[in-house]
Model the fold of this input.
Amino acid sequence: MAGSTVRKARLQDAANIFELVNSLAGDGTLLRRNYAEICENVRDFHVAESEGGVFLGCGALHLYGPHLAEVRSIVMKPEAKGKGVGGMLLKALLKEAEDHGVQAVCLFTRIPDFFFKYGFRVTMDRAALPDKIYKDCQKCPRLHACDEVAMVRGPIPKVAVLGPSKIKQQELVPLQIAFTGTTH
Ligand SMILES: CC(C)(COP(=O)(O)OP(=O)(O)OC[C@H]1O[C@@H](n2cnc3c(N)ncnc32)[C@H](O)[C@@H]1OP(=O)(O)O)[C@@H](O)C(=O)NCCC(=O)NCCS
Done:
């Protein structure tokens, strides 16, 4: 879409994000997000907007740690789909992961073909992503009837920071050094 841009979200975008994400939560396309959660995590989001500044879509990158990030809540308004802007959003999220030194990015989706184009591959073993399962799946009503595929870009992480398999707190700093080569 000519002139469209992607930028980091601001708190003023939270209402648009809330409305668009939840418009696709009813059929399970996206996880439902409450308004407070979106405000609290608004710094995870990028938004796409038209040349005139009209909100077109959004997507979020959740950081679990230096070993793993997740693309969440990526969605375009219906009238803005198919014009290359969703791809721009996804690239901005992947660039953000790269800027944080995170090589492994995961997501669960019903439209793997879109994500194949950006280097994601399907992983049959969801247990390989315990952070994601602990964060969202355990409390999801579709836990035992999930129709999404798990996808990963980059290496499958060997550690987790949530749930029973989480690593000990004192191991987190060495973990960051190992993954990103930096302590800050
Ligand atoms: C998925 C979504 C964000 C893509 O945004 P978009 O602006 O329509 O995508 P783009 O126009 O940037 O398409 C980029 C490429 O992906 C392809 N693509 C777009 N949607 C696709 C889909 N559903 N399945 C397969 N390929 C798709 C396009 O054909 C294009 O390919 P090309 O570069 O070879 O031409 C958008 O369709 C959407 O909001 N879908 C509903 C919400 C959703 O399902 N989100 C994913 C949850 S995990």
About this structure: The pocket of coenzyme A is lined by residues 24, 29-30, 74-76, 81-87, 107, 109, 111, 113-114, 117 (CB under 6 Å).
